[in-house]
């Protein structure tokens, strides 16, 4: 009978071990499924992050191209401003040269007009020029 009890005890023990192994196997399977689901989630999030980074990189490339275009435009504008400044300086030099060239003539011309006015004033009779001072 001791052998019978030992046999039943061994059978119960093996059944308990089988149940424990089954429970451990189910737990491991659930854990493995959870890991697989987490891996799928991470993969999907990683793919979405990659797509966002690609969009950001594309936007950054477009912004860089716009900045390069703006820099080229600013350089052309600066070159135009420099050319305009040079033209203004040449115009001022030309105007100064013309003024120097014509100044003597203008002074003589205005002096001639002043002399003619003085002569005209001298020919006016005193009765006609009563209201004048000078």
Commentary on this structure:
With 134 residues, the protein is an all-alpha fold. The chain is 91% helix and 0% strand. The protein contains one helix and no strands. The chain has one helix spanning 2-123. The longest helix is centred in the middle third of the chain and has 122 residues, at 2-123. The radius of gyration is 54 Å and the shape is rod-shaped.
Round the Cα radius of gyration to an integer and report it.
Answer: 54 Å
Mean pLDDT: 87
Order of helices and strands: H
| Gross morphology | rod-shaped
Largest sheet: none
Which structural category fits the helices and strands?
Answer: mainly alpha
Q: Assign a percent range to the helix content.
A: over 70%
Low-confidence stretches: none
Give the terminus-to-terminus CA distance.
162 Å
By DSSP (H or I, 4+ residues per run), the number of helices equals 1
| DSSP strand tally | 0
Fraction in beta strands:
under 5%
Features:
mainly alpha; 134 residues; rod-shaped; 0% strand
Could you give a quick summary of the protein structure above?
This protein is an all-alpha fold and 134 residues long. The protein has 1 helix and no strands. It is 91% helix and 0% strand.
């Amino acid at each position: 009978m001791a052998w019978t009890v030992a046999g039943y005890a061994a059978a119960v023990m093996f059944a308990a071990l089988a149940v424990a192994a089954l429970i451990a196997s189910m737990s491991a399977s659930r854990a493995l499924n959870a890991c697989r689901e987490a891996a799928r989630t991470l993969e999907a999030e990683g793919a979405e992050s990659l797509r966002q980074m690609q969009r950001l990189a594309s936007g950054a490339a477009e912004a860089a191209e716009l900045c390069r275009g703006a820099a080229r435009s600013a350089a052309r504008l600066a070159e135009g401003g420099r050319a305009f400044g040079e033209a203004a300086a040449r115009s001022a030099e030309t105007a100064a040269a013309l003024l120097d060239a014509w100044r003597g003539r203008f002074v003589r011309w205005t002096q001639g007009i002043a002399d003619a006015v003085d002569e005209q004033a001298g020919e006016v009779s005193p009765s006609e020029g009563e209201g004048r001072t000078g």
